[in-house]
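debug: dumping io for the single-chain case to check the tokenizer round-trip. Nothing else runs in this session.
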Amino acid sequence: MWPKSFVRIPREEQWVHSPIEELARSYDAVENHGWYRNLDPVLDDLEELVDADSVVIDYSAGTGILVEKFFKRMPEIQAGFLLVDASPKFLRLALEKLGADGRTAYRLLEYVKDKKRLQQLDEVMPRTIRSDGVDVLCSTNAVHLYSNLDGTLESWSRFLKPGAIVLLQSGNIANPNAPDGSCIIDTTVEQLQPIARSIVRDDNRYKCFRERLDDEERTAAYGELRRKYFLPVRPLDHYLGALRGAGFEVSKVYERVMEAQVEEWTIFLSAYHDGVLGWAGGVQRIDGASPSEETVALRQQLLRESLVALFNGQASFPACWTYINCTQPLN
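debug: decoded output
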């Protein structure tokens, strides 16, 4: 499925030989969480679209969860899957899990300092792939993180062959068609902030965190950091307009509600505790020193109790994911 001159694994790049980090393993564990059924509609589409001659790009592939799940569904499929991501930590784990499988290939999007942006798809792909074209591009649980959305989509359009399909999905899109009572999963990060602060003020177990509660300058800095981890939610029309502006034809938009377990969401957020509750004990990039292991453990306990209070002790909550299918025009 790959041209003869194509290099599946760029072994001259440093990330390929780096040790696997605990953050990547923690993130990868979400594969087993019930709310990761949010990938099922995309996997259903892939089963219909992919055949032995297909080349698929998993853009923002992370630790390779989507491709791993697809191979479990269709173990005999001989299509090529090109995993692209901006995180060397995550891509390194994807390589560890799937690199021995000749159906997979890997490319890292590096940050271009002088242009203040990530490399674009057509900057990291060789001409051998560009000339043959790509049949399907998937982006799951990631499009809401793209700060340069227009540039990213335009690079896809330049790269995909006519008639190619784009499958987008995110649980962090403000969708006016979302069922009543459902929520956007990342908004819980902001919703738990006043709850956590109230707990710290009232509970002496957390009195060591009180010194930063009334520091407005630091509070603003921690809020800015938090919004780098969990970007403000943008409306559905923002994405539809950007896709059409990049030349894609939007063919289908729909939503699905997944029941997210509070315990599983707590475990996921605990991997990003410094972004979620950085003000509780401080963080290196703001305070110049990392918190102790004891402080981190107390912060994670506060995170857990805040989420329990946010959801009134319920075991789960309904979260809405939005799906957008598009086509690259034939001419």
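debug: round-trip ok. The chain has two domains: 14-170, 187-227+264-310.
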